[in-house]
Specification:
Length: about 220
Amino acid sequence: MQKETKTISLSLPFRMGSVNCYLIETDAGFVLIDTGSSYSRKELIRELESAGCKPGLLKLIVLTHGDFDHTGNAAYLRNAFGGKIAMHNDDLGMVECGDMFFNRKKPNILIKKMITLFSGFGRSERFAPDLLVKDGDNLSEYGMEARVISIPGHSKGSIAILTAGADIFCGDLLVNIDKPVLNSLNDDLAAANASIQKLASMKTGTVYPGHGRPFPMHLVEIGSM
């Protein structure tokens, strides 16, 4: 059973803002949704330890998508804390090859080089996940009454986690810096809008985004996306 959700806001390099990770305490231990970038590793470890999440107690690391600011500490945490890594197959190449554009539309060479430079996602950060999850998969085996929801758009393999209490962790599909909106960075805008419609059709409580503050789903202006 889910006991408590702790929001861990980690700094991004070069003052580019912050990214959220979510630590969920359950009867079986802890589940971590997203891991931040490798630049904020010490900050993340302090937050985990202060919450009582010590090596052996982290049961599962769920990655909402393959971007470096969400996956940069996954390999380290698996080795240091023992948690299994779960993600969608469609973003697999991003973490295995260290290339967030592996299956995305290619940016110009300058932008790609800049992102590679500040991502901090080197060879030691690359990994193969332990579990490949898909739409509808249940996470109760790891102590969390929740299921996986496929929400492509920001990336092909983006997923959300919908808990039995109707809270939803949406990765980078939606952000809430000033107000809840569709992320401006999308690989497929039509797919992203379809994913928002999909979430809006479900019974949802609090939405926990990858960037910005949690919010209720009804604040999202669906028709304006």
